[in-house]
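Review this today:
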Amino acid sequence: MKTTFPLAWRSGSRWAGVVLLPLAAGAGAQTVAAPSGVLNLSAQSTVEAPQDWMSLTLSVTREGSDATAVQQQLKQAVEAALAQARRQARPGQLEVRTGGFSVFPRYGNKGAITGWQGSTEVVLEGRDMPTIARLSGEIGTLTIARVNYSLSREAREKLQAEATAQAIARFRTDAADYARQFGFAGYTLREVSVNTDGAAPMPEPRFRVTLAAAKVGDGEALPVEAGQGRVSATVTGSIQLK
C-alpha cells in the first residue's frame, strides 16, 4: 500500500497544498502511479458597489363580518394604488406589481367564525429610488410594510465579471509564485473551477414600518439610503509543477 504525505498551508484568503512522492510501498502490492509535483490552489476576490435596486412593499388590511365584503374592499384599495402607480411606471426605473393576497376567518372563544380579515400588497421596485419613495407617500389606500435594497441584475452581473477576473488573476499569480518558491520553472493547469455568489445574494438591509405607526397618504417621501452590495468569486484548482 502506498503512502503519500500532503503538505498544505493557508495564507490570507488563499490556500495551497502539494502532493509529494510516495515514501514506501508494501511488498507485492499493486503499484499505482501517484501524482507528483501537483499543487492545489484557491484564490478569492470580493468587489462591491452601491446597491441600485429598491423594492418597496405597500400593504393594506381590512376586516369585517362578510368575507366577500372584505375581499371587495381589498380589491378596491389595490386597484386605486395600481392606477396611481402605473402613471409613473417605467421599465427598469419604476415597476409595479401586486404581492400577496389573503382572506382568512377569525374565530371566537367557542370556535365559531366571528368575522373575516384580509390583507394584500402592491410592490414598487426599480432604480429610481427618489420617485419610488415619493410615490409611497402619495398613495393613500396602502401603507408601507417593508423596504429592501439590492443590486440590479445588470449591476450584479458586472460585479461578477470583475470579481471573477480578479480571482483568476490572483490564482495565476499565486501559481507562478509557488512554482518558483518550490524551485520549478513554471506550471501547467490540470483542472480549475470558478464559482460566484450570484445565485445566492448577500443579505440585504431592510427597513420595516408597522401599520399602526405608518401614516396613510401623508404626501411625504420616505427617506431612503441604499448601502453597498458585494459579490465574491472563488477559483479553485490544481496545477502541475514543471
Remarks:
- The first strand starts at residue 6 and ends at 11.
- Residues 153-181 form the longest helix (29 residues).
- The two ends are 27 Å apart (CA to CA).
